[in-house]
Specification:
Strand content: 15-25%
Shape: elongated
Distance between the termini: 21 Å
Structural class: alpha/beta
Strand order of the largest sheet: 3-2-1-7-8-9
Number of helices: 10
Number of strands: 9
CATH superfamily of the largest domain: TPP-binding domain
Number of domains: 2
Bound molecules: 2'-O-acetyl adenosine-5-diphosphoribose
Helix content: 25-40%
CATH architecture of the largest domain: 3-Layer(aba) Sandwich
Radius of gyration: 19 Å
CATH class of the largest domain: Alpha Beta
CATH topology of the largest domain: Rossmann fold
Largest sheet: 6 strands, parallel
Order of helices and strands: HEHHHHHEHEEEEHEHEEH
Length: 252
């Protein structure tokens, strides 16, 4: 850790120790140390495929099998991955400091680390939904099979297609979930960790926090779309930065 990183870690640790309310927005970079590829990083998923070819409702309608092959592949990587130190520190903060965690990740690793009160903005890769929303299959359900079976899987109620219960490009977020996230952005300390902050409305939580008067902390090895809004910037990996902050904030 550089000298300036150390100073920044100390500042964040002091703020965390003193805060009455802490909110953390996470993105794919938090799961990077668990071996799950990010979307836009060096080895990012979107560098190899075009968004429109896989993560849209149109793509699914055109080629549901191709889309499911991609999700099945991601599910197999995620199933074999373990939560890393970043997930564990955040789960501990949710428990002991009543921090609110908001994630764009669909991988379920925060939950597997025991995170409570998690706000999941983009759904879950482990949940599925009837494509035609038949009356009996209106609610999402859990299907953790890897591989999931014949592609595309079929709805047990109507026999139609099943889709991953994640938010695709062009689809709205659940309004109640977004409202909860926006309310949580009004806090004392807001950390944005491992996200490129280019996908909205999730990235909009960062200016929301800033306007509400939060100390905004960015943890990311690279600059992001909202770096200019951060009061403190830590150019470190999520697991290393959060572990260092946690150790120091515990001593206070
Ligand atoms: P991105 O792939 O866009 O960004 C990942 C960020 O993590 C980048 O800014 C990296 O610099 C950073 N990063 C990489 N390794 C890291 C590490 N070890 N520690 C900390 N940061 C690290 O992923 P998201 O911002 O999560 O949406 O992407 C947002 C949304 O775009 C996703 O939820 C997904 C995607 O399309 C949907 O599927 C709707």
């Amino acid at each position: 850790m550089t000298g300036s990183d150390r100073v920044a870690v100390e500042r964040v640790a002091a703020a965390i120790a003193a805060a009455r309310s802490i909110t953390v927005l996470t993105g794919a970079g938090v799961s990077s140390a668990s071996g799950i590829p990010t979307f836009r990083g060096e080895d990012g998923l979107w560098k190899k495929v075009r968004v429109e070819t896989l993560a849209t409702a149109d793509a699914f309608e055109n080629d549901p099998r191709l889309v499911w092959e991609w999700y099945d592949w991601r599910r197999s990587i995620i199933r074999d991955a373990q939560p890393n130190a970043a997930h564990h520190v955040l789960a501990a903060w949710a428990r002991t400091r009543r921090a609110t965690l908001i994630t764009q990740n669909v991988d379920g690793l925060h939950e597997r680390a025991g995170a409570e009160r998690l706000i999941r903005l983009h759904g879950s890769i482990w949940h599925v939904r009837c494509w035609s929303r038949c009356p009996a299959g209106r609610a999402d359900w859990l299907d953790e099979r890897v591989p999931i079976g014949t592609l595309p899987p079929s709805c047990p109620h109507c026999g139609g297609m099943v889709r991953p219960a994640v938010i695709w490009f062009g689809e709205p977020l659940d309004q109640a979930v977004l409202d909860r996230a926006r309310a949580a952005a009004a806090c004392d300390v807001f950390l944005t960790v491992g996200t490129s902050a280019v996908v909205y409305p999730a990235a909009g939580l960062i200016p929301d926090a800033k306007v509400a008067g939060a100390l905004v902390v960015e943890i990311n090895p690279d600059a992001t779309g909202t770096s200019h809004m951060a009061d403190v910037t830590l150019r470190m990996k999520a697991d290393e930065a959060l572990t260092a902050i946690d150790e120091l904030s515990d001593l206070r």
